[in-house]
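Entry:
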Amino acid sequence: MAKRGFFGSFLRALLIAVVVFFLLFFFWPNTAERYLGASYRHAKTSVDAAVSQTVGRAMAAVKQKLSDPAIQKRLASFASQAGDAFTDEVKKIVQDAGDLTKEQTAKLQKALSDPATVQKLKDAAVKGGDALEQGIDSLVETVKQ
């Protein structure tokens, strides 16, 4: 009989454990999720679900805030004025709608610095109602993704 040392047995057991883990992780994700708490499919779907849930909550918050006629009138009045009052108000509404990371805040600033985007939002603010909600919802989607 051959004598095996501790180190050789340890490496063999470690190799078998790693192979079993990767087989479960990639080929049997339901079993891996149950016993290991992680799987390839779960990680991918949980990130997608978290992103869509966050965007949904932000859009709901924006719609709830824009349903107030006083805010719609204030945005319409800011849209007719020159200056940054309109973009500042839109930025405040979007930031209040959800917790933005630094990257998302930078995306928001970049989107609001685009004259075409600002003009589209101003036109929607003048129209009011659903047009304004849709414009800000598309801005939130752009920022959150």
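The chain has a mean pLDDT of 76.
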